[in-house]
C-alpha cells in the first residue's frame, strides 16, 4: 500500500481498509466462512502551512525607479483551506514604499499592499517591489523594515507570524552651499557700484542653518542682505522650508575716505560660511571664498595756474616774462559726499593728505564731477552706516 500524496495542510487523516473474501474469485469454499476484517490507517500529513518570502535583506536607493528599487516574491507553501491575505507594509515610508508588481509601478507605491491567495492561486508567487524614496536630506544610508504578514483568512494560516525584510536605502544627498555670482567677475567700484551673488543650500537641513557671509576688506566693500544693510557680516538663515531659495548678498564698493589713491583696483575675498546650526552642516560643510574686485575711481588730472583761459602776454623782445605752472592732481568725485567709512574713522590723516585735499579745492575740477549728484542720498545712508558700525565694531577695521 502506498501513501497518498497531497499538498494541502489537511492534518493527519485516518481512514479504514476493509478486507473480505470475494466468493466470485474463491475456489476454496472453506474461506467463504472467514469474516471481513477492518484495518484502520492514519496518513501522516507532511504539509505545514506557511509562506515563503524570497528575500530577507534588500537594498534600495533614494534615486528610486528601477535602479533604486528591489523586488521579492511571496508564495504559500501549502494549499489553504480558504482564501489567505498577506499584508506587506513599509515601516518607514520616508525611505521606502511598496507596490505589487515590478518597479515600473513605483510611481504608485504606497505604505502597504495586500496580497491575496486563493485555494487555486496559492502556489503562484506574487511579486512585491520596494521603491526607495527621496528625502533631499543628507541623512546617510538608512536601514528600515518591510513587514510581510501576518496572514489572515484560512484558519491554518491565520495563526502564522509575520516575516520581515531588512532594507537599506542608500542616500544620494550631500550637504553643501551653492554660491552663484551675479556677474563674472564680481566687480564693485569706489563710486559705490555694487555686485551681487546668491547663496543657497544643496540639501534640506533637519534644523536651521545659519551661513555667515563676511567681507574680508570693509575698506573696499561692505555687505547687505534683506534687512541687514551695510555691514561687515550678514547672517543668512536657511530652514527646512527655504533651504533651496537663493538669498542675495549685495556688495557695495567703498571709496577712500581721505587720501584718494589712483589706480588701486583691489581684489579681496568675501567668505561664505562655515555654517552653524544643523549638525550635518556644522560638521561637514566648510567655508568658501568669493573674490571681489573694487575698481578705482580716481582720475589723474592737471591744474593750470593761472587757470585755463587766462591771457598770458609776452613780448617778442623777450623783456616781458610770464610763468604758468602745471601740477598733477587727482580727484574722486565721491570723496566730498562720502560718509566716513567706519573702518577708517580712527585712521589719523597725514598732513600731506590734508594738504592735498586743500590743493584739490579748485572748483573748476570738482564742480564738473559727475558723481556728486548721485551721492545726495548719502546723508540718510551715512547715518545708517554710522549706527551700524557703532553697534558692531569691525574686528577687521584698519
Ligand atoms: Ca537623503
Ligand atoms: Ca534617506
Ligand atoms: Ca582709489
Ligand atoms: Ca577714490
What does this structure look like?
- The chain has helices at 155-158, 279-284, 351-359, 363-366, 378-391; strands spanning 13-19, 37-43, 51-53, 57-61, 69-76, 84-90, 96-100, 112-117, 126-132, 142-148, 152-153, 163-170, 177-181, 186-189, 194-201, 209-215, 221-225, 228-231, 233-238, 247-253, 266-272, 276-277, 288-295, 299-305, 325-331.
- Helices cover 9% and strands 37% of the residues.
- A hairpin with a 2-residue loop joins strand 17 and strand 18.
- The chain is built from 5 helices and 25 strands.
- Residues 335-398 have low confidence and may be disordered.
- It has 4 domains: 1-47, no CATH class; 51-170, Sandwich (Immunoglobulin-like); 177-295, Immunoglobulins (Immunoglobulin-like, Sandwich), CATH 2.60.40; 300-345 and 361-398, no CATH class.
- Strands 4, 6, 8, 10, 11 and 12 form a 6-stranded mixed beta sheet that branches.
- It is mainly beta.
- Residues 62, 135, 137, 139, 171, 173 line the site of one calcium ion.
- One calcium ion binds next to loops.
The set of bound ligands, ions and cofactors reads: calcium ion
**CATH superfamily descriptor of the largest domain:** CalX-beta domain
Question: What value does the average pLDDT take?
Answer: 83
**CATH class wording of the largest domain:** Mainly Beta
CATH topology of the largest domain: Immunoglobulin-like
Structural class: mainly beta
Q: Oligomeric state of the chains? A: single chain
* Number of H- or I-type helical stretches: 5
Task: Work out the number of β strands.
Answer: 25
Return the string of H and E elements.
EEEEEEEEEEEHEEEEEEEEEEEHEEEHHH
How many separate domains? 4
Q: How many angstroms separate the termini?
A: 108 Å
Portion of residues within helices:
under 10%
Large-scale geometry = rod-shaped
Low-confidence stretches: 335-398
Radius of gyration: 45 Å
